[in-house]
Amino acid sequence: MEIRDAHFPGRAPLDAYGNGGFRFAKMSHQGALLCVPSGIYGWDLTDPSEFSRQAFSKVFEEMADIEVLLVGTGMDLVPLAADLKDKFREVGILADPMSTGAAVRTYNVLLSEDRAVAAALLAVD
Known about the structure:
Elements: E1 7-9, E2 14-18, E3 21-24, E4 27-30, E5 32-36, E6 39-43, H1 57-61, E7 68-72, H2 82-90, E8 94-98, H3 100-112, E9 117-121
Parallel strand pairs: 7-8, 7-9
Antiparallel strand pairs: 1-6, 2-3, 3-4, 5-6, 5-9
């Protein structure tokens, strides 16, 4: 038996967030999400202190198709570490940290405009 990481192939707006998870495409997911052009993935992070280049490796793999990365840092805005922000800038991605709620709303707007957007979202209660 093969066990796969949580993955929704394709892009979809996020219908709801809270209670430790997200709803999208008539499904729900508990925990953090990483929304990139290839799909929506479960993301095994719970706190902004866990942000690292390795944590964002999927974003870097798909950087050619991403102009803006919205980083939902939980209930409150937590700035990205300077070295991580520099790495995003180096590869041509505008990384914009904000509360998860603001990131979800902005992601949906940019997605509806067919923009090259990705989102890395920590779950909130």
